[in-house]
Write a structure and sequence with these properties.
By secondary structure, this protein is mainly alpha-helical. The protein has 3 helices and 2 strands. It has one domain: Rna Polymerase Sigma Factor, Chain: A (Orthogonal Bundle).
Length: 89
């Protein structure tokens, strides 16, 4: 993904298209985790972070500024989830 897309790109009739977001950002989330140089996580831990990220986006969909880039929100969410999970190791 060369450039981030605005959140409004992922809206259809004022509803967030989560399926499209999952398709486009699943690999990006894995890259963010790897870039944090944290390899102690099991595959289950990583998949939990991925699922939690999409859940948080969905849960907060009404609060998202549709003129902001979605990847910025996702990176922030993933970093917070990784930090939280690190505390448990």
């Amino acid at each position: 993904m060369k450039e981030g897309k605005l959140i409004k790109y992922y809206k259809n009739n004022d509803e967030l298209d989560l399926e499209k977001i999952v398709d486009e950002y699943n690999n990006y989330i894995h890259k963010v985790i790897r870039n944090m140089n944290y390899y102690k996580f099991s595959n289950e831990d990583i998949e939990e972070i991925v699922a939690d990220t999409f859940f948080i986006i969905w849960k907060n969909r009404e609060k998202l500024d549709e003129n902001k880039i979605l990847s910025s929100y996702i990176a922030g969410i993933v970093k917070n989830l990784v930090r939280e999970k690190r505390k448990n190791y």
